[in-house]
Queue: 2 jobs
Job 1
Amino acid sequence: MNISELAAPFQVTRPTIREYMTLLSRIFLLDVLPPWHSNRIKRLVKTPKLHIGDTGLACALLGLEAEALRRDRELFGRLLESFVYQELRRLAGWREETVSFFHFRDKDKDEVDVVLEIGGRVAGVEVKAASTVREEDFKGLAKLREAAGKKFTAGVVFYDGEAVAPFGRNLYAVPLSALWENY
């Protein structure tokens, strides 16, 4: 999130953009996801990430239909990431323990889409708009595991497949459908 980049096309000031973002957050149309960091790794990017509160509304405002999303995989991937983030927040609302949400990105541009922290434990979630998962899809999760140390409990790559598969110590590929089905 770069406030100056957001303000430039609209020819408004940075404080005005911040006020708009605050308003959109208060009416649940925008979520600002802060960065996760620990004192163990200093080479982290510490800027927040933005998520749209309703991916269906985003598609409607952009005039996107299913075919357009099939053609533009990058845009589909970003919307899918926001959808998964919103689903995780919804599911976290059922827990008695508070779940804090973050994202993780280091200076090498290795990232984890969503980091969950619960009672001092840390888990990471990566979202892939693909039907297969490769070892390299876990690179950011491995760096998060290193940064979190003993606090790290699990890393998951959600993908458009059908099977849960282990990918090393506490790392798993999990079908997106696990968000709403029992596995």
Job 2
Amino acid sequence: MKEGKDRELSLLAKAAGEFGAKVLAPSREENDQYPFGPLFEPALTRAFDLGFLHAGLPENLEGLGDRLAPLCALLENVARDDASMAAVILTTAFAQNILLEAGEEERFKSFAGGSWTWADVLMAAPLFRDPTETAPGLTAEKRGETFVLSGKSDYVVLGGIAKRAVLPALDQAGALGYYLVDLGGWGIRKSGPVFSLGLHACPAADLEFSGAEALSVGKAGDGGKLFRAVSQRFSVAAAAVLSGIMRGSFKEAADYAKKRQQGGKEIIRWSELRMILASMVQGVRSTGMLVTEACRLWDAGDPKRRSAALSAFLHAAEAAISATTDGIQALGGVGYMKDFGQEKRFRDAQHLSAAFGILPRKKLALLKLTMAGE
């Protein structure tokens, strides 16, 4: 059984790596120009055809299943060449799993079918905010069998290109809940793409609501519970994206060092550069092992899986920033140029470190879990 699962992961990693190398890498610089250039729709179409946009779903919904390891293998190998696509997959999977965690599988099935394109599958969500710590700017008022939303939700990832969003809002009693919104409906105003530090091809938009119709997700007041359950699990997935960024950064630095000559010899033969590469390898290997172990514990239902997930993410966030900084240094002056991938990886790593809320609060959450013996 284990050999079969290992083979499946190997094949998935290979497919994702080939997609990154053949589809994403050749157009990475051009794709990163969004919103000042076109969105990488051909790449999204290919990702959809390969089933990557369904990856976070159970097998009966054409996904990779309930195990976390396959999703992380996919994200890590896609992020090696372009973390923007990995963030598109991550955001969609997070939003989809809010619905599934709330027991809304039948509702999901009601619109998850037919002749679909990538735009139908994408789901938007505010990926870089913890609604239990920072109150959402939306309120939900019950009107018959549905709700209406009013207010503003800032920086909703994929909010400008997805057809649906899963958004946190406070009801009339002040309780936090999630709501499913058709972004093509009445009473919704979308900003243009918000130009961000990194992940340009995974665009976000600010959304304003004036009595827009929405459907409640799960039970009233369950928003905090839903966010914690899904974000803790998907912290490992975000760590896998950061791990992929680190792998890509090391590969580019090592390849460049083998070809670039200075003083009559390849720069990889200079001890100072070898120490930089050695530090990068240390970060890559330790992060990869932490992600693998966090996946194993989560998929096994281990009592310490939540602390393992947070540990993996916190380590990955700090290690990725360090590794991408080293990656720029290894290339010297050209490391800052956009026609190399290193400066983009540095921006992407900084950006992704804020997934599901700010790092200091995650550190305090890890301390709390550890003190409780989890």
